[in-house]
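Record 1 of the preview.
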Amino acid sequence: MRTSATHLLKSVRGFTIAEMAMMLTVTTIVAGAAAPAVQDYVAQARYTRALHDARAIATAVSRFEGDVLGQSARARGWATFDLLVGEGATPGLGAGGDRLWLAPLGAARVGLLDEHLVTNAVGYSSNPPRQANFIRGWHGPYIESGIGPDPWGNRYAINVKALADGGSCTVVVSAGPNGKIETTYDGAVIVPGGDDLVALVAPPR
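->
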């Protein structure tokens, strides 16, 4: 009986130290080989999300601008700002970037996108006179939830001054993976600098 019990104990005693070391080595090699692929996937997912966010904000701004066009210059209306931003950290400045993108929230001509697109904190009229068979006024929210930071923790920004100027290109910008703005602030055409993500705001219909 004792011999039988000893045999059973030996058969279920588990792995030896050498076997455990071998398994740990194999697991480490497999994990190391998979890590770059996982990192690439995460990086691509962040990039895709930021581009989607920027385009969604650009579409919302275009709709919003068309709706409240006649009220743009009212107190704290969008035309009284140079820059509108989302939540998040202020990015750094990279080569070719413009410092105007970095103006702090709370500065004289810098406002929060949420107050125009989500909550109507500005108080745009929502029931103005009918014009060309369309009731102009704030018909938001244009984005259902608040505009949070990009996937790298920095704010989205829009050169809203270009909406009033008319001759400049209006864009939504994310500083991208390196967290540095490398894009110009104004111009008839704005090309993304560095790894910035840029979405064009189409003129309202």
